[in-house]
Design brief:
Layout (H helix, E strand, L loop, with lengths): L1 H14 L9 H33 L9 H11 L7 H8 L10 H13 L3 H10 L3 H13 L1 E3 L3 E6 L2 E6 L10 H16 L5 E6 L19 H5 L5 H18 L1 E2 L8 E2 L3 E5 L2 E3 L1 H6 L4 E5 L3 E3 L2 H4 L6 H9 L1 H8 L5 E2 L11 E3 L4 H11 L3 H14 L2 H19 L2 H13 L2
Parallel strand pairs: 3-4, 4-7, 7-9, 8-10, 9-12
Antiparallel strand pairs: 1-2, 2-3, 5-6, 10-11
Helix pairs in contact: 1-2, 2-5, 5-17, 7-8, 8-10, 10-17, 13-14
């Protein structure tokens, strides 16, 4: 009750103020002080009660709630802990620079849950379960071998699932639609009994600068971030805990007594570039090919945000020095330079990509490959270490997307590309 009352007083204060960009110095200071105080109280509350709250919301960990369902349930059961549906609706209607930053409070809550040795693993398992959308599409894909979505085209040919990123107008830049389509596609690949290996590649672009060329991925859609359409829960966290984690671990779908997870080998083929989130993707694949004229980069630090789980994964590929050059310094790595071979398995001439892809998927099509990739992933990415990283990421990324530097940079990018 004390937390709810304190939260109500802060909400009343914010309601009496103009939107953040229109506030004067004194108003900004008052809002910052009030928000800092209530967030400290929320952090203390969830840190002390995370397991108790989670057990209450999931009926003693017998129900599996995805992160979006969990934050909504917490808002109903614990007033003042996380924003309500109504408060989030108001936030969604605003540009990023006009929001109050209520997603930071969701980050505080999810950090506390993920930190818990009991609640955290259960939440990760909840995010590894197949989505409702994928289960609805599974009969169609099983029968036809084809599913077309807005951001991803999925086609099974001779036991190989071909996932093609097909947002040709925006260079496959990532947004909430792309995350939803990718998680659906990954679920379908893993659940489909006729699929043995999966391949991800970018399609041909209609963008004037890259007309007719294949492009892998341009990373996060900065225009969408500026407009307030890149959510913490449904994009930034769902992406990491959903389809990327499923590529590593598999989908939790009953499986067999061997394992409750169904996993398969994955190949990525990079044409032109893999920027930001595109480069992050490569770190979870079993085999990566790149055209010799392609390049990789992780400009998140220069943009002001955290590059997903790349801070956790990249050092094991490149070592600390190169990882810091890429993440902290914005270094771009060309596919034809030696350091690229730390991330990319094969570099081939653009005209040789199709043949190299066919050879790679053939090599990964085997039961021994499947067993060994599972053991490698357990060794390289222990679930508890991943959970602890994602706990801190939940809050740090929430803070970053509301940083004044980020809002300024993405605003200038959006204005320049309009």
């Amino acid at each position: 009750m004390a937390l709810a009352e304190s939260a109500r007083r802060v909400d009343d204060l914010l309601a009496d103020l103009p939107v953040p960009p229109a506030r004067d110095v004194a108003q900004r200071a008052a809002a910052a002080t009030a928000l800092d105080g209530i967030r400290a109280a929320r952090a203390a509350y969830v840190d002390a009660r995370a397991e108790e709250i989670y057990d209450e919301l999931t009926d003693g960990r017998t129900r599996y709630l995805r992160i979006d369902e969990l934050v909504r349930a917490a808002a109903r059961a614990h007033p003042g802990l996380v924003p309500t549906d109504e408060q989030m609706a108001v936030e969604r209607a605003r540009r990023q620079g006009e929001k109050e930053g209520r997603e930071i409070d969701q980050g505080i809550f999810l950090r506390g849950v993920l930190r818990s040795p009991k609640a955290g693993p259960h939440l990760l398992d909840a995010m590894l379960r197949p989505t409702t959308r994928a289960l609805a599409l599974l009969p169609e894909f099983t029968e036809s071998g084809v599913v077309r979505m807005a951001a991803v085209r999925l086609e099974r040919r001779d036991g190989v699932a071909h996932l093609t990123l097909c947002r040709d107008d925006c260079l496959n830049a990532e947004d909430a639609q792309q995350v939803d389509d990718m998680e659906t596609a990954v679920d379908l690949v893993l659940l489909d009994p006729a699929t043995r290996v999966a391949l991800l590649r970018g399609g041909e672009m209609s963008h004037p600068r890259y007309q007719g060329r294949r492009v892998f991925c341009a990373g996060i859609n900065l225009k969408k971030l500026s407009s307030g359409d890149i959510p913490l829960v449904d994009f930034l966290l769902r992406r990491e805990l959903g389809y990327l984690h499923k590529i590593v671990r598999g989908v939790l779908a009953g499986g067999s007594w061997h394992s409750p997870l169904i996993d398969k080998p994955w190949v990525a083929a990079v044409d032109t570039f893999a920027i930001g989130g595109g480069a992050q993707l490569l770190l979870v694949f079993d085999h990566v090919l790149a055209a010799s004229d392609a390049y990789l980069s992780l400009p998140a630090a220069t943009e002001g945000i955290v590059p997903g789980a790349a801070n956790y994964r990249l050092t094991r590929f490149t070592g600390s020095r190169v990882a810091r050059q890429v993440i902290l310094g914005g270094r771009r790595i060309r596919a034809d330079e030696p350091d690229a071979r730390l991330v990319v398995d094969e570099v081939v001439p653009p005209e040789g990509m199709d043949a190299a892809i066919d050879s790679a998927v053939t090599r990964l099509d085997g039961d021994a490959v499947l067993a060994n990739r599972r053991m490698l992933n357990l060794t390289e990415e222990p679930p508890d270490e991943f959970r602890r990283y994602m706990a801190e990421f939940a809050l740090q990324q929430a803070l970053r997307i509301y940083g004044a530097d980020v809002i300024g940079k993405v605003g200038r990018f959006a204005a320049g590309s309009a």
